[in-house]
Fold each of these.
Amino acid sequence: MYRFGSDNRNVDREGIIRDMERLEKLLADLWVVGRSPFPFGRVYNDKTLRNAPLLEDWRPAIRATPCLVGLVTGHPTLSGSRRRIATSDLWLISEELGFARTLSRWYRLGTPACELGKDSEDNGR
């Protein structure tokens, strides 16, 4: 996840470019697999996999990744207003400018939860 403000001075541009390159390679591989006839095993030949690392004793796992949670309105695929969601992976965020980019889409940022919690505490006194 990359944070930045209106001055763009603290943006890790090199990191963004590295991630763009990695994502472009992934996208190219997905295009090859997606457009290839079955079986997929024939998509890649020995040249592609010759220098790939060997992973032993492997298993699928889940790891935490940054995302946003909150109440969404106007989502293109989730109906309703103020529906509680967790977004896809968070890539860019600017609280100052009021927007974020996840793997799937852009979001406009409204009031953060910490301010809602603070207001709730103040109202309860």
Amino acid sequence: MRIEHIADLDSPALRDYRALTDVKLRRLSEPADGLYIAESSKVIARAMSAGHRPRSVLIQEQWLSDVAEIVGDHDVPVFVASAELLRELTGFEVHRGALASMHRPVLPPVAELISRARRIVVLEDIVDHTNVGAIFRSVAALGADAILITPRCADPLYRRSVRVSMGTVFAVPWTRLPEWPLAADLLHEQGFHLAALALSDDAVSLDAFAASAPEKVALVLGAEGDGLTAPALASADTIVTIPMMRGVDSLNVASASAVALYALRQPPVD
């Protein structure tokens, strides 16, 4: 690694870190030469363990030894600055003292990703990064094999998603789906039964569905508030609902994912 102490915040070498507002990060989410920002030495280590490559690292002096252990064998610049300069450069308080600009990995084709899977989760247009991160954590903990996300779904590699997921976004295989109904065609071609979690007069209770669940299940989850879209519901093979009490009609989508995955759990694919 190449250590460089920052003296000039206008240096072009720092462009990946300049004014990291939500809007800018979303615009950078998946361009052809895309990047994402990993926050904290622990997250950087997990990303690199998953095979992701750093472009550069930006840290406070006291984190240098930790980062050296992680990226020491890689020929990347490591920019060192005070907390004040980091805040001025990035536009936010870098509480964990370290950021890395990471090359965004190429996403695999849907068919390749799910060819050996039996339980997958589909996230349709879930735009809240906290919910996306929490669902990744549930999937990792409860044994589903992969996550597929629709074109308008929030970026799993956004730093808030990564943080809430406890780094499981680097452990759970995922990729993006096309729009419905093409997405459903891809899943049906791989033998998946689409179970949409939603309220409906003809919905099957989760208990009943889990008691005789198909071998391959794609659990489809929608955004808070609006829920699943009409095309998603039309593509589903079964509408599944979680029985509720005390007049409650729904759970937070991340909570609902955990409940449904627990009911449908089975040993993960080797």
